[in-house]
Write a structure and sequence with these properties.
By secondary structure, the protein is α+β, with helices and mostly antiparallel strands. It is 27% helix and 33% strand. The strands form three sheets. Strands 1-2 form a two-stranded antiparallel sheet. A two-stranded antiparallel sheet has the order 3-4. Strand 5 and strand 6 (72-76) form a beta hairpin. The longest helix is centred in the middle third of the chain and has 13 residues, at 49-61. It is elongated, with a radius of gyration of 26 Å. The relative contact order is 0.10.
Amino acid sequence: MGLTRYSTNAYGQASYQYWSQPVPKKVECMTCGNRYDERRRQLGYNFCLDCGEFKAIQERETWCRVPLPKQGYTLVTRKSDLLHLNQKTR
């Protein structure tokens, strides 16, 4: 798969230049086995975009928004933090 660049010279004659891009290497996803671009693994992801989206949705399901007095809503990601926010003693 090559790229094309169109240009004209000083006399108005058209010319095309063709060149090819290097094909990115593919690596295998640790979760589903699909192949994805090696540049994603170099960024530190060991899974494809589909598996990454699934993992992100699972992670966001554990988050909770809590209304705090005089502050508005706060995002809580750990249950231990949520238990310490209760100001009333029982």
